[in-house]
Write a structure and sequence with these properties.
Blueprint: H1 12-24, H2 28-40, H3 48-54, H4 64-77, E1 81-85, H5 91-103, E2 107-112, H6 115-127, E3 134-138, H7 141-144, E4 152-157, H8 164-171, E5 175-184, H9 191-197, E6 204-209, E7 215-220
Parallel strand pairs: 1-2, 1-4, 2-3, 4-5
Antiparallel strand pairs: 5-7, 6-7
Helix pairs in contact: 4-5
Pfam family, one: Methyltransf_24
Keywords: Methyltransferase, S-adenosyl-L-methionine, Transferase
GO molecular function: methyltransferase activity
Amino acid sequence: MTQAVFHAFTDPRITAVLDDIARDARHDDDVMRRAYETAAAWPAPPTPEEAAELCAEAALPVHPQVGTLLYQLVRGARPQLVVEFGTSFGASTLYLAAAVRDNGTGRVVGSELHRGKARRAGAHLERAGLLDVVEIRTGDAREELSDLPGPIGLLLLDGWKELYLPVLRVVEPALADGALIVSDNLPMLPEEFVAYVREPANGYLSQRLPLGDGIELSVRTRPRPTGEGA
């Protein structure tokens, strides 16, 4: 049974674009199956660039439950800078940007490896009337997000799973104390990433939330200096 899409807001421009992305996503299973079959025949695992090309027609939108949480978190925390790794067609960006707009302050910086997807996301944001609060950087997120001035109040990780930890480490110096990190697709995440954010000594308080197919919600805390007593 097809579930009705719940939206966190009533702006018809935004809901229309989200509905269009949801319709595009109906073909995602076929696109991803072909991508996996193609990659399986290669002598080595695909690079992120190769994987992005194989999945260029997959919308891969954030689950509406997760999108609603993103909107809630941004509205509540009122971060001045929201950063997204893995923009794709821009569904999650719409939730983030709508919250920034409704707060009346802040901006969103997204990153997308595939240029075609970045252009498509930009068009979606323009249709929704949200492009003025968003910057989409195209290329390797480890480079594109390395010069953010911070402080980053919310970080969404929703791109190539093996890059979650490298991207987190790149932006870590710019994370605000108390910054929120939402990591989507928890069952697919590398064990080393989950272990990293669940280790208090690394400066995070983290737990699983049963939204969508599972997310990891982490809060950036100040690591205790070495040698400091309890």
